[in-house]
């Protein structure tokens, strides 16, 4: 306790001396001694940042960053030669092509060149994306495996194939453009194979891979009204097309709103609310009577076996047997009558074949129409881009004053989707993992 009191007394004496700078001049020590300090439980994590004073840590880190920007590292790590130099007279300045030489003075760089020079000694951060390589781990493992096989004396497959393609009696391999070289079609294994010693493959290229997924051209020619100086008719036709597209969108939105709207007939009334509240509380008498009749009509135990059928039940069973017998007789008569209906049956078959051919033709036409339409390749549907059209007052008539419309990159991306080469996609939603921390720099704080 005596040591702590002596330390506090020493601090008060030092603070009373003239020229002493406080760390926090706006802090009122007398008020802090009179008032009671708020007690905070710092064992809880939520109170660490709220009631922890890290100002000294921030100032220390800002000082370290300032030293790195100014000298390229900490001053404590620098040697004396890097911090001081011996002034032995005038220093020779390296001539600069942009420097200006004045009378009686040496070469001095221009002010604009000094402004453009970087004022920070910290090297720029490394671009990680420039060093990343797709399938880097796979390629590294393949290279390690190739080195291991080379150490064992095993040649790669490409080298073995090159050695097999050598002409007997010659040291140089056969060139690919040599007409004397034997030719082997990879997709026609029925041909003879004298180039490779391995047997030809037993598979063929599927014909479906030779068919384009869409008959649309890669680059669609824009309408004549989209020109920078179109004629009146073409421009009005393009405006009408854009107008019809917007009207269709508005109708679709209104239809969706009508379908989602609540009808007045579906709104709850006082009577329906009361019926729902009392439902299940009042048992109907009819249900009770039906339950009692079922209990009386069903027999339990040995009485069910000894109970005799009533006259009514026997008559019903006899009527059912007669009905089944008549049905079987009618079926036999119909089968005999079909022998005399050959013309009718043949006409029915011709009619069905005609209907089948019509449906086949319709199906083929539908498939041909689908070849020029975007298909459903993923969970999203293809959304046609908006027409790039300019109003009549926006037409410039000159390429110099032309206002650019649309984007070439988006147009190519939509073209790939429309031709069924890629599935329709939407931009991934960016979600920040950590909150952005705004730090007030030391230079800005000093200016204030």
TrEMBL record:
<dbReference type="GO" id="GO:0008097">
    <property type="term" value="F:5S rRNA binding"/>
</dbReference>
<protein>
    <recommendedName>
        <fullName>Ribosome biogenesis protein NOP53</fullName>
    </recommendedName>
</protein>
<dbReference type="GO" id="GO:0006364">
    <property type="term" value="P:rRNA processing"/>
</dbReference>
<comment type="similarity">
    <text>Belongs to the NOP53 family.</text>
</comment>
<keyword id="KW-0539">Nucleus</keyword>
<feature type="region of interest" description="Disordered">
    <location>
        <begin position="351"/>
        <end position="376"/>
    </location>
</feature>
<dbReference type="GO" id="GO:0005730">
    <property type="term" value="C:nucleolus"/>
</dbReference>
<feature type="compositionally biased region" description="Basic and acidic residues">
    <location>
        <begin position="364"/>
        <end position="373"/>
    </location>
</feature>
<feature type="compositionally biased region" description="Acidic residues">
    <location>
        <begin position="286"/>
        <end position="297"/>
    </location>
</feature>
<dbReference type="Pfam" id="PF07767">
    <property type="entry name" value="Nop53"/>
</dbReference>
<dbReference type="GO" id="GO:0000027">
    <property type="term" value="P:ribosomal large subunit assembly"/>
</dbReference>
<dbReference type="InterPro" id="IPR011687">
    <property type="entry name" value="Nop53/GLTSCR2"/>
</dbReference>
<feature type="region of interest" description="Disordered">
    <location>
        <begin position="286"/>
        <end position="332"/>
    </location>
</feature>
<feature type="compositionally biased region" description="Basic and acidic residues">
    <location>
        <begin position="317"/>
        <end position="332"/>
    </location>
</feature>
<dbReference type="GO" id="GO:0005654">
    <property type="term" value="C:nucleoplasm"/>
</dbReference>
<keyword id="KW-0690">Ribosome biogenesis</keyword>
<comment type="function">
    <text>May play a role in ribosome biogenesis.</text>
</comment>
């Amino acid at each position: 306790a005596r040591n702590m009191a002596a330390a506090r007394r020493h601090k008060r004496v030092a603070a009373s001396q003239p020229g002493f700078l406080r760390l926090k001049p706006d802090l009122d020590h007398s008020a802090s001694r009179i008032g009671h300090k708020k007690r905070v439980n710092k064992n809880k994590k939520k109170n660490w940042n709220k009631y922890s004073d890290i100002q000294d840590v921030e100032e220390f880190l800002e000082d370290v960053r300032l030293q790195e920007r100014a000298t390229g590292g900490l001053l404590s790590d620098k040697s004396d030669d890097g911090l001081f130099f011996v002034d032995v007279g005038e220093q020779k300045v390296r001539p600069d092509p942009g420097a200006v030489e004045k009378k009686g003075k040496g070469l001095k760089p221009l002010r604009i060149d000094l402004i453009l020079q970087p004022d920070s000694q910290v090297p720029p951060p490394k671009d990680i994306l420039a060093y990343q390589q797709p399938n880097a781990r796979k390629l590294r493992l393949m290279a390690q495996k190739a080195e291991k096989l080379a150490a064992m004396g095993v040649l790669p497959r490409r080298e073995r194939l090159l050695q097999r393609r050598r002409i007997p009696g010659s040291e140089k391999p056969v060139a690919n453009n040599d007409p004397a070289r034997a030719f082997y079609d990879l997709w026609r294994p029925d041909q003879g194979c004298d180039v490779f010693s391995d047997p030809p493959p037993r598979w063929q290229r599927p014909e479906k891979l030779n068919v384009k997924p869409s008959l649309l051209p890669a680059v669609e020619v824009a309408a004549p009204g989209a020109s920078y100086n179109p004629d009146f008719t073409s421009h009005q036709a393009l405006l009408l097309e854009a107008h019809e597209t917007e009207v269709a969108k508005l109708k679709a939105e209104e239809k969706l709103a009508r379908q989602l709207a609540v009808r007045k007939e579906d709104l709850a009334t006082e009577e329906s609310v009361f019926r729902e509240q009392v439902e299940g509380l009042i048992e109907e008498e009819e249900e009770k009577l039906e339950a009692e009749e079922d209990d009386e009509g069903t027999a339990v135990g040995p009485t069910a076996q000894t109970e005799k059928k009533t006259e009514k039940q026997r008559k019903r069973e006899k009527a059912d047997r007669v009905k089944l017998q008549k049905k079987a007789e009618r079926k036999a008569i119909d089968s005999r009558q079909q022998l005399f209906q050959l013309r009718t049956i043949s006409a029915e078959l011709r009619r069905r074949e005609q209907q089948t051919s019509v449906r086949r033709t319709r199906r083929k036409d539908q498939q041909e129409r689908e070849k020029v339409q975007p298909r459903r390749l993923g969970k999203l549907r293809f959304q046609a881009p908006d027409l790039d059209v300019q109003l009549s007052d926006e037409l410039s008539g000159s390429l110099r004053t032309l206002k650019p419309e649309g984007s070439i990159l988006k147009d190519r991306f939509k073209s790939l989707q429309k031709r069924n080469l890629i599935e329709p996609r939407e931009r991934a939603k960016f979600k920040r993992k950590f909150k952005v921390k705004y730090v007030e720099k030391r230079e800005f704080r000093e200016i204030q």
